[in-house]
Amino acid sequence: MTIPALAPTHHPALAAADPELAALVGAEERLQAETLRLIPSENYVSAAVLEASGTVLQNKYSEGYPGRRYYEGQQVVDQVERLAADRARALFGVDHANVQPYSGSPANLAVYLAFARPGDTVMGMALPMGGHLTHGWGVSATGSWFRGVQYGVRRDTGLIDYDQVRELALKERPKVLFCGGTALPRTIDFAAFAQIAEEAGAVLVADIAHIAGLVAGGAHPSPAPYADVVSTTTHKTLRGPRGAMLMCREQHAKAIDKAVFPGLQGGPHNQTTAAIAVALHEAAAPSFREYAHQVVANARALADGLLARGFDLVSGGTDNHLVLVDLTSRDVPGKTAAKALDRAGIVVNHNTVPFDPRKPFDPSGIRVGTPSLTSRGLRTEHMDAVAGWIDRSVTAARTGDEAALAAVRAEVAELTAAHPAPGLPV
Q1: Considering the domain boundaries, does residue 21 fall inside one?
Q2: Which terminal Cβ of the chain has fewer Cβ within 10 Å, N or C?
Q3: In a domain, 36, yes or no
């Protein structure tokens, strides 16, 4: 790959100090600007979030919590963290918010530390069915340190069978029950999970990392009235920096805070906390509510476009920001399709589908989503063209038609040029 020269006005200090790294940053800026990013867990942050991420707050060490630090000189940092936590509580309607977790996986580890002991039974959605590694899956530390039991989806519908979840929970009696995942295209029934958790005597944790922005914007039901703990990343649909939050009922606040620090982490990343505060401020604006609903509308329009072209979609469609595509009938492995789409300027990830006969690193599906497209200002009327490009690219992946992929990339470039991404200097 040829690295293009970086215009010195973009990052002048970086370009002067480390031209090689500056060129790589410039290449990534152009890549993000010139491709359609359909990975559901990615998004474009605003210029304000980017600026907050690079402030002098990077220079501070702040072990502890506001008013209870192990370092002096925290007069300003305490206000930053309180501001972020206050905004999280207001936006999500929760009693308590901890904005210090470094990312989603450490946040979930803190939940286990707060409510379980090694060897205890924990329960979550199986990874191949759309769950997350940290929900007790075997290759994760959570599946090694705890006894993980998993629920899945129905083979005939691709939907969660809540009766089966209840039966398993009452049989296994987990200490912690996770709901949520990374490849769930349908609405999560938090009330149903809450009832199951109460019957089984489990702490209910709603992992809304993927849908936090949809929840904040009113495009997906909120878990706040039902879950003991809400875990989320702060990027993805929330359009913040790469960080995480744990929100909970007041009776669990001390346990959660103690588990994050000193249980798992040292000093928080104050520059990330500041960027989280900015993102939460943006998410409280009416325009963000419009954005969240547009994400869902775009995903449904994209699903309709794919269905019209004969694609098989897990659960038959979507209620949220993502579409899980089973390519078995197309005779193209997911990884092969994803790499071809990348060459066509359409960035997706290969993904396991429920009951997938193929291996996880070479699965049958691809996962596509609309958060980044929507951040560029694309609307439902653009989604049929995107579905058409996916169709042409998957066909080209099967036939080895590189010319067809190049033609798609040229058309993609026209669209991205007409709809520039926010926050990018290119």
Answers
A1: no
A2: N
A3: no
- Catalytic residue flag (residue 63): yes
Asked if residue 11 belongs to a domain, the reply is no
207 catalytically annotated: yes
In angstroms, what CA-CA distances link 424 with 7, 43, 47?
A: 13, 12, 7
Which tokens hold the place of 36? 């359609």
Asked if 320 and 385 sit in the same domain, the reply is yes
Residue 113 has what DSSP assignment? H
What is the rounded distance in angstroms from the CA atom of residue 299 to the CA atom of residue 316?
13
Decide if 86 is catalytic. Answer: no
CATH classification of the domain holding 316: 3.90.1150.10
419 marked among binding-site residues: no
Q: Which of 34, 63, 120, 342 is catalytic?
A: 63
pLDDT at 7 (0 to 100): 44
Structural domain including 364 reads: 289-418
Asked if residue 36 belongs to a known ligand binding site, the reply is no
How confident is the model over 111-119, as a mean pLDDT?
97
127 is an annotated ligand-binding site residue: yes
- Where are the extended beta strands (E) located within 147-290? 147-151, 176-179, 203-207, 229-233, 244-248
Active-site residue flag, 370: no
Question: For 22-39, how does the pLDDT look when each residue is reduced to its tens digit (9 = 90+)?
Answer: 999 999 999 999 999 999
Binding residue per annotation — 131?
Answer: yes
pLDDT digits (tens, 9 = 90+) for 258-313: 999 999 999 999 999 999 999 999 999 999 999 999 999 999 999 999 999 999 99
Judge whether 60 lies within some domain: yes
Note whether 116 and 260 are same-domain residues: yes
